[in-house]
Amino acid sequence: MKELKKRYHVEVHAGSIPMPKKLLISKIKDKDGLICYPYDSIDSDVINAATRLKAISTYSVGYDHIDIKTASKRDLVIGYTPEVLTRATADLTMALMLSLLRKIPEGDKLVRDNKWKTVFGPYEFLGTDLYQKTLGILGMGRIGKAVAQRASGFEMNVIYHNRTRLTKKEEEKLGARYVSLESLFKTSDILSIHSPHTPQTHKIINLKLLKKMKRTAFLINTSRGKIINEKDLVIALKKKIISGAGLDVFQKEPIDSTNPITKLDNVILMPHSGSATTETRKKMAEIAVKNLVLGLAGKKMIYQVKM
Ligand code: DGY
Question: Whose CA is closest to 213, among 239, 234, 182, 235?
Answer without folding.
Answer: 182
